[in-house]
Structure formats: structure tokens, C-alpha cells
Design brief:
Layout lengths: L11 H11 L11 H22 L23 H12 L3 H9 L15 H7 L4 H7 L6 H10 L1
């Protein structure tokens, strides 16, 4: 393989010639400490894991953690509160998903007759507008973000 970026630069022709002659040398087995390989192997495993994670269709957990790995955000929330927040983020609660375990029909909102989902309760249902306005900052909720964008 020829590198044309070195043509005409003093000394580079010698370096190119030396590099080409090294290709004909016999490769000798070298012992490499395992500690030198660990970072590279770790990176390769992380890349494969991320590729697999990205290829999973319908993975609701990607909304919470799009990148795999040991990222642990610092939080003052208790373990139980973190679980509650994550369940809300992926839309799985006893109220909205217990029908899957009981074999019942999916519950509907009594006001809107639409499927009862976390998003419907927190963002869409007009029955909860007053409660949302009272307890949430407008930009906190998805719907609030859209409303703020429309105002500006």
C-alpha cells in the first residue's frame, strides 16, 4: 500500500522504505501482559453489547438507559423511588398493566374511554389538567414541553 501524502517530503521516503522492508520480517511471538489487553477487550465487549442493545426492537428500557455500561447517575432518591420513577418512564404500573396478569381486558379511562396508560394519565387526559397544573412544572411533562414550544 502506498501513501502519497509523504511524497516529496524530505526523510519520509526513507521512513516509507523502512516500513515496507519491515513487512518482510518474520513475526515473533511476544508475551503481552493481560493487563495490557483488558482495556481493549473491555471496549470490544462494550461495543458488541451496545450493538445488541440497539438492535432490540421495542425495548422500552432504552428510553431510560440508551447507553449500556456502568453509568450510575448520582441521585438522592431511595431505591424504591428510583424503581417507581423508572416504571413510570417505561409506562409499567400495576394500575395500567395488571390486566396482563389477570387475563382481563385493558382498562380504559372512565372519562375519555381511551386505553389507560401512564402517558394518558400524566399527559393526555383532560380530567387531570387541574392536578397537572397544580403539581407539575409545565416543562416537566412531555405535553408541557410541547405547550412551551408552541408559546415561543
Amino acid at each position: 500500500m502506498t501513501s502519497y501524502c509523504h511524497v516529496g517530503i524530505s526523510g519520509n521516503e526513507k521512513a516509507d522504505t523502512a516500513a515496507k522492508s519491515a513487512l518482510s520480517l518474520r513475526v515473533t511471538p511476544m508475551k503481552i501482559p493481560a493487563a495490557d489487553l483488558v482495556p481493549r477487550v473491555t471496549m470490544l465487549i462494550s461495543e458488541k453489547w451496545q450493538q445488541f442493545w440497539n438492535s432490540c426492537a421495542g425495548n422500552k428500557l432504552q428510553a431510560i438507559r440508551p447507553t449500556v455500561g456502568g453509568h450510575q447517575p448520582k441521585s438522592s432518591l431511595s431505591r424504591r423511588d428510583k424503581v417507581v420513577v423508572n416504571r413510570l418512564r417505561i409506562g409499567h404500573t400495576r394500575c395500567t398493566h395488571s390486566y396482563l396478569l389477570t387475563g382481563a381486558d385493558q382498562p380504559e379511562c372512565t372519562t375519555c374511554q381511551l386505553p389507560l396508560t401512564v402517558k394518558h394519565i400524566l399527559v393526555d387526559c383532560f380530567n387531570f389538567n387541574d392536578t397537572r397544573n397544580k403539581h407539575f412544572v409545565a416543562s416537566f411533562l412531555y405535553g408541557g414541553i410541547i405547550q412551551n414550544c408552541r408559546r415561543t
